[in-house]
Amino acid sequence: MTTKLIIALFLMFFSLLTLANNQSLEIDIAKLKMLQFTKKPLESTLEYNARKQRVHDEYLNRTYRLVVGVYNPKNKTDGGLVSYDTDTETLTVSMPELQHELVWLMDGGEKKLKWINYSFLDVNLGDIKKRTYVGQNGFGRKVKVLEIIFNSNGVAILSTGKRNETYGEAQSFTTTVSRSKARDILENGKLVLTFRNELQFYDTDNIDDEGASSLLIIKKTEHEPTITRPIHSVSTKYMLPVRLIHLSLHDGKGAVILQAQGSQIETSPYDEE
């Protein structure tokens, strides 16, 4: 397997689809990635909390509009946002599979450990760094390893859920469409998603500075190499927590096929530990 093919498969695994650029959303995520708060040596707790609160207030309740290309010509139901049931002529728009993450949440000035439930959607595939090195197992056998470090930026669409569910119940919306129109939607349709950010302060082990907090949810996944699969992959997702406010589905000509309000705008995304 060539390096280019490995990277291509890696990108496919971590991205559901190609997203249209949304400049304001990308800019805000990039800015918030840089705001990793630590209490300064001569800063009082009151000053530290006030500094964090100013940033929180600056970004709180901002709204973003994201245009997503549907492109699901094979009508896959296990990855695409839009799918079609030919038997019932039902078109379904589903947010990505629900995920669960344990985070430290600053809630009312108090630090609490809670499970957060969300669907992850890429906004920007970020950057890829790769290198090769020689690895060795416990028996002394050596192998050339390809290391891939992949960062992606996106939104964590907050939702309710239970952390013991194998598959979460993500938000979904349906409408009836004739088979003659379904193909155009699956191949050329677009989703227009409107989000409202919902910022909290999250402490995460993925930030090096001791005691640092972030306004983003940060999830790091690492797959160690083996002799039979000498690929060492490290993926870090930077996620802005948002609420889905509204969505509209358009066909290839721009006609509106479906409009809906987010079904969990005000529900709690947290499970008490």
Structure characteristics:
about 20% helix; alpha+beta; 3-stranded antiparallel β-sheet; 12-stranded mixed β-sheet; about 270 residues
Mean pLDDT: 81
How many domains make up the coordinates?
Answer: 1
Order of helices and strands: HHHEEEEEEEEHEEEEEEE
Structure classification: alpha+beta
Helical residues, percent = 10-25%
Largest sheet: 12 strands, mixed
Low-confidence stretches: 9-21, 205-211
* Strand percentage: 35-45%
In DSSP terms, counting alpha (H) and pi (I) runs of 4 or more, how many helices? 4
CA-CA gap between termini: 44 Å
In total, how many beta strands? 15
Q: Which shape, going by the Cα principal axes?
A: globular
Radius of gyration: 21 Å
Explain what the structure shows.
The chain has about 270 residues and is of the alpha+beta class. Strands 1, 4, 5, 6, 7, 9, 10, 11, 12, 13, 14 and 15 form a 12-stranded mixed beta sheet that branches. Strands 2-3-8 form a 3-stranded antiparallel beta sheet, with no helix packed on it. Strand 4 and strand 5 (about 110-125) form a beta hairpin. The protein has one domain. The chain starts with a helix and ends with a strand. It has helices spanning about 5-15, 25-35, 45-60, 180-190; strands at about 65-70, 80-85, 90-95, 100-105, 110-125, 130-135, 140-160, 170-175, 190-195, 200-205, 215, 215-225, 230-250, 255-260, 270. About 25% of the residues are buried. About 20% of the residues lie in helices and about 45% in strands. The chain has 4 helices and 15 strands.
